[in-house]
Design goal:
Largest sheet of chain B: 4 strands, mixed
Largest interface: A-C, 95 and 95 residues
Distance between the termini of chain B: 25 Å
Number of strands of chain A: 15
Oligomer: heterotetramer
Largest sheet of chain A: 7 strands, mixed
Shape of chain B: globular
Bound molecules: pyridoxal-5'-phosphate
Radius of gyration of chain B: 14 Å
Order of helices and strands of chain A: HEHHEHEHEHEHEHEEHEEHHEEHEEHEH
Radius of gyration of chain A: 22 Å
Strand content of chain A: 15-25%
């Protein structure tokens, strides 16, 4: 695979950032966008714009078709059984809120348990916490092992006959651990427990097959998949979307509205209230097609190479401690440097154009467990090269020099 | 696209003066259809005799010229047919609107088919397809005794 | 004001739609976008993209500043007292759901009443309907008069000592009636009842001053204000945002997260969970600035002229019945033609490049009241001209010819 | 921008070996500060004597070099000052970080001001301003006896 030519498809790298070439190592936060995606938004607004689904004029019909084409592309990309199992949201956070809210309303009662893990992002904890307050449910956390992984045993240990749903990340945005989702789903289903997967870090980096994974819900953010901001996907098995109540109310999601009552529309409208993020959905199709063109296997392979190279180089540096050592790991390296706070690392690296993230990465539970208030994190995307990692390593040296280490 | 193909004389005629726009007495099957996008409604009443033949069919409702004409022509054509035949005609019509060039069934005669093909102009107007198919989906529900309201938005 | 040169700022009009010039009369549904907005999105993704608020690197800092600049612009535009009274949502529908959900959670109990009007869009009814189910509240509808208006008396008639909140549209998207919001708010406040205004049709067309209107909540959709899709604003008085519980949970809206409990962030973060629609928020600043440049007074004046012209021309046509006749009316003309269903009108007009909307416009309650299953609607934006209305009128004649009227 | 201005020797020194990083015995005022963005925490302990003079001030917590140095320098400078003076210094510092070129107060001497101005390098790093101001906001809360946790994210 020719990374140089792939990288050229991302206009951001044509520009200097404060006189430096951009070394973008913050893709777990949000990825950069290829030209096809940016152009699609531009063209749609310039030549084709209309709201979808509501008017019968030419532009509206065309926009509606484009909008639905993205649904078909997402279905294909994640191998969902039915097009109507794809619900568009504004992001993964909303997708998880949607499930927690509607599943919680219908199925959770006082004393019931929701099982999460210590690796979860706040977006996969706070929505469940709301139910702890309103419904008096309990939240359990499967514990990480020394390597920063969640094993199937860790899940098994926490399942009780009160466990009503399991909600876990596909790939940790801190340790990079890839969870054994298929095994978790099998175990859960053997006890009739549905499983939500927070696929924020899974979807951009791993081959997905909903029918094989067999999870009940899968949440995706478009902006981490080389797509626009403001667009996400909730995959949910049709039986759940038929069964659960609607989430937001508004235009487009209804069937019949009377003063005395309302009947809701069928799938996929039921969960898409109000004017949706039309342009973003339409442009997201280009992200999917871009990833298909590159090939998810190639993306996985490339990012694995970068990871191995990065772990090797940073591992040789005695001042650096890498957080977590999972056997099955995605392109994320979180680390600390004894004597330099991660925020200072990030600021100093930034001066060389190296963009990383520092902090708790919305994973305070994990950081508390690791007894680390903050970590620095380099995360990879399809456009990264070994040169980027060399620059990272060199800038870390600069950082040590400033701090006299 | 050509408006004249969509709004042919026969469509305008059936749209303005729909046949069978009434309620069958002693109907034994019925179903309601609704298009939430535009608010079109149709209620189909069916009377099958002991041999499962359509003794009478009628409809009530309101909608655009296309949807009224479609219901009108449909009710005209299926009257006197057997239940299994009706189903075949319905599926054939829906296939034609969706993707097929021609009607395939051997139940309708050429004149009847020509009449039905007048509705094919709608294929060029994707948002209007639902107008043409609402009554047909609703007829299927009536036959199958689906209690659910048919909804063509999805 | 030179409409021709303003119109030139909208690239969509450079292109033919099916060989016709586009006569876009569907702005109440969604408006077209000026070049500055489209370019801003393009440039942001091409040269400046980063997630906001979470990383300390250069691009993240710059994006965060741009993001917050929009908040300041919106504050200025609607004359809110405090920048943190501006919450970004994905649209007006979400903004109304946010209020209904959080206000409902905290303040509504069995038997309480929510007062709406018969003019409301489904987006300002379904979210309240949810509470009818979950909290056993009642929903009352202030009734329209012959002119399709809601008078202050109509509101007064329906207020009881059970009324806990009033939620009304600023400008009807069907009859065009502009509601006496200031009087409604005064009346409501005299009885300690808060008021939410669905400003979807107000914000793009009327001069706004939150401190003068004094409403408690005001919901806005960016895509109807010459802005991107997927972005909306909830204005809410600070006391409410401080007082109400959060709506969605996720990254960015928290303060401290522990296994046993969570404290929420301060304003404006509390209501902005997860990665927001960064690019859309940033580009929305250009919409605001565009509207400021044109001048809302000029927009109001221009649209009033179009309205008067349109009412005059269509009013002369005996086959046309205009729906509603409010004294105080915005740029919306809904109508019917005896013998031609609105959907057929829309299809036939579309053939000439005239884009209008037909149906119930997400206002089934109103259409039931009017005993009209559907209406045709022409609605205006800053780019419309009298020529557009002449073309509308001419295409209606064509429509009548086809239907032999 | 110039990193050397941000990470001056004095900042690095105070960052690595913060003064007053302990808990004042018999403190009579305190407050906690927290930056949810990065997880930085600070807890300020204050002992005012009967004349409202700062008899002792100390802090506990963790954070980056900037935030530790800021707390360290702050506690050093306000020790021995009167409550009203402390408030003036705090406001002056916050104004300087926000927009002013120079410190305006007449309480600190030139040496002290120079020391404090070392923190002004942070002005070029908007995301880091919160690091520099957290302990100062927290000190205000302690003096005002705000029970609420200070939170610099907003
Ligand atoms: C009066 C009114 N309220 C609410 C809405 C819903 O706004 P959105 O679909 O942008 O959320 C609309 C537009 O569709 C409207 O016209
Ligand atoms: C694992 C994980 N879950 C959830 C989220 C939240 O996604 P978003 O902010 O796009 O809604 C993120 C990203 O921030 C993430 O990395």
């Amino acid at each position: 695979m020719d990374i140089d030519s792939i990288k050229k498809e991302f206009p951001i790298f044509d520009n200097k950032v404060q006189n430096n070439d951009l070394v973008y190592l913050d893709s777990a936060n949000s990825s950069q966008k290829p030209r096809v995606v940016i152009d699609r938004i531009y063209d749609f607004y310039s030549k084709e714009f209309s709201n979808v689904g509501r008017s019968v004029h030419y532009l509206a019909v065309a926009a509606t078709n484009l909008y639905e084409n993205t649904r078909t592309s997402v279905q294909r990309y994640i191998n969902a059984k039915d097009k109507n199992e794809i619900v568009f949201t504004k992001g993964a956070t909303e997708a998880i809120n949607l499930v927690a809210n509607t599943f919680g309303q219908k199925y959770l009662e006082e004393g019931d348990e929701v099982l999460l893990t210590e690796l979860e992002h706040h977006s996969n904890y706070v929505p469940w916490h709301f139910l702890r307050n309103s419904k008096k449910i309990k939240i359990e956390f499967a514990e990480i092992n020394e390597a920063g992984e969640i094993t199937i045993e860790a899940i098994k240990n926490k399942i009780t006959n009160k466990t009503k749903i399991i909600s876990v990340t596909h790939l940790s945005n801190v340790t990079g651990a890839i969870l054994p989702i298929k095994e978790i789903v099998e175990l859960a289903h053997s006890k009739n427990i549905p499983v939500l997967v927070d696929g924020c870090q899974g979807a951009p980096h791993l081959k997905l097959d909903m029918q094989e994974l067999d999870c009940d819900f899968y949440a995706i953010s478009g902006h981490k998949m080389y797509g626009p901001t403001g667009i996400g996907v909730l995959y949910a098995k049709k039986k759940w979307l038929d069964d659960l109540p609607p989430y937001q109310g508004g235009g487009g999601m209804i069937n019949e509205v009377k003063k005395t009552g309302i009947s809701y529309g069928e799938l996929p409208n039921k969960y898409e209230a109000g004017t949706m993020a039309t342009a973003q959905v339409i442009a997201f199709n280009e992200s999917i097609k871009f990833m298909e063109k590159v090939g998810i296997e190639n993306i996985e392979k490339h990012e694995k190479e970068l990871l191995d190279y990065g772990l090797d180089i940073l591992g040789k540096n005695n001042s650096i401690k890498i957080v977590g050592n999972p056997k099955n790991k995605g392109g994320v390296i979180s680390f600390t440097i004894e004597g330099v706070h991660p925020h200072d690392i990030a600021t100093i690296l930034d001066e060389d154009g190296v963009a990383i993230r520092a902090g708790h990465h919305c994973c305070q539970i994990l950081h508390e467990k690791l007894k680390l208030p903050a970590t620095a994190r380099a995360s990879f995307g399809i456009y990264n090269t070994k040169d980027d990692i060399d620059q990272l390593s060199q800038s870390i040296e600069n950082c040590k020099k400033i701090f006299n280490i | 696209m050509d408006l004249k193909e969509l709004y042919q004389e026969i469509i305008l005629d059936h749209g303005k003066n729909p046949r069978n726009l009434r309620k069958t007495e002693n109907f034994n099957k019925d179903a309601k259809g609704h298009n939430p996008l535009c608010g079109d409604n149709v209620h189909i009443y069916l009377k099958l005799n002991e041999n499962k033949k359509v003794e009478d069919i009628s409809f009530e409702g309101h909608g655009c010229a296309i949807s009224m004409a479609s219901a009108s022509i449909m009710t005209d054509l299926v009257k006197g047919k057997e239940e299994a035949e009706v189903k075949e005609i319905v599926n054939d019509f829906l296939d034609m609107i969706k993707e097929k060039e021609e009607l395939q069934n051997k139940i309708l005669n050429e004149d009847e088919k020509t009449k039905l093909m007048c509705l094919s102009g709608v294929k060029q107007y994707p948002m209007r397809v639902k107008c043409a198919t609402l009554s047909w989906h609703t007829l299927t529900s009536a036959i199958d005794d689906f209690q659910k309201i048919v909804n063509t938005e999805s």
